[in-house]
Amino acid sequence: MEFSVDAAKVLGAGLCMGLGAIGPAIGEGNAVGKALEAMARQPEMAGTLRTNMILGCAITETTGIYSLVIALLLMFMKF
User: Fold this and answer.
1) Residue 1: predicted pLDDT
2) What pLDDT is attached to residue 15?
3) What is the longest distance spanned by two Cα atoms in the chain?
4) pTM
5) Residue 51's closest CA among 35, 65, 37?
6) What pLDDT shows up at residue 2?
7) Which candidate in 3, 6, 24, 74 could, as Cys together with 64 as Cys, close a disulfide (CB 3.0–4.6 Å)?
8) How far apart are the C-alpha atoms of 21 and 62, rounded to whole Å?
């Protein structure tokens, strides 16, 4: 069986996106759930909690974007 660099690139990119996208998804779901729970307990703090939640989700999402960049680099780089 012959080793194919193209097959390895596709497999690596798929693993990168598969593992790199599940972390931010779980993290953002947890953060939004806890923020909604906190807003339900203290409605007067909803504005501050919403701002912090959105900022946290944006920072968490960068992990998924980094894995997308790495996956695209793996797919289109010449080795």
Assistant:
1) 54
2) 93
3) 65
4) 0.75
5) 35
6) 66
7) 24
8) 10
Residues 64-78 have a mean pLDDT of: 92
Q: Is the pLDDT of residue 65 over 80?
A: yes
What secondary structure does DSSP assign to 11-59, as a single string? HHHHHHHHHHHHHHHHHHHHHHHHHHHHHHH-GGGHHHHHHHHHHHHHH
Asked whether residue 74 carries a pLDDT value surpassing 60, the answer given is yes
Per-residue pLDDT at 58 exceeds 60: yes
Tokens of 32: 């939004």
Q: Reduced to 3 states, what is the DSSP secondary structure of residue 3?
A: coil
Neighbouring CB atoms inside 10 A of 38's CB total: 16
Domains parsed from the chain with CATH numbers = 13-74 (1.20.20.10)
For the beta carbon of residue 42, count every other beta carbon within 10 angstroms: 10
Q: What is the DSSP letter of 5?
A: H
